[in-house]
Fold F-box domain-containing protein.
Amino acid sequence: MKETEGNVDTDTPHEVKSLSIVGFRLREPHHSTANHKATPEMHEAVSKPSESQQAPGKRKNIKRRDLSRFLGTMPPELIFEVLMYLPPQDLVNMACTNKGIRRLLLSIPLLWERKREELEAPAPPPTFSNAKWVSFLTTKHCYTCGVCNVRPDYYLLKYFCVKCRAAYLINDIKVKSMFPGLSEEVLRYIPYTQMNAQFKHNETRLYYSQDVESMKFRWNWYLEDIEAGKEGAKEVFDSFKKERAALVRDMQEVSNSAHRFLDGFNMRT
Ligand SMILES: [Zn+2]
């Protein structure tokens, strides 16, 4: 799994042309478990599985770890059959209980593909796996503060409450004041939204400040390698820029269809 910085998250980009979003309809949930909802941190956890082992010793986690071990002893086909009975939201919540269970669940990509189909959602957009897409669709919390039931940003594919939109989405003028000395070229490689505070399309491009921060460090890192005369550094930098430009383009292309699908999705859930 390839990892990029900031909110652009993980996974190999999908072909945008595969994202045919129009006309999807949700089924009614199988049964409600809405009182147990995942937080944004949990959403990230599903999106970005850690390679590290969970530190042992906390008594309260023993039962959960035992559950992951128990599941690990079951034949994969049986685990799949059992987990298929869980609604998508419950599966996301289960993945957030501990790292062992999360690793186990993320090791069954077909499970997440089926859950995505259960939601009648289209193929995941660029940078999203099926697991992350299901998590995104069922976890409607503000990306930064965690407040519930906020509207998604169709361009950045994140949820932001009104307060956090105002605090963390910045235009190019604000970028200059917050990140003095940062090359204007950098903005070409950062996904942006054109939704305003009223969730309407706007000509002004807004960047998530954390994305700018992450890109700044990455950018400087490449420049330092080039200045130090590291072999192949310029080629690596050019390749990075090309990849990021494609990502920004894909995110923009997908926003229109994402808009239509997510509006319909949110009206039904
Ligand atoms: Zn917020």
Strands lie at 152-153, 158-159, 169-170, 192-195, 201-208. The chain has two domains: 26-139, 153-269. Confidence is low (pLDDT under 50) at residues 1-37, 39-43, 47-57.
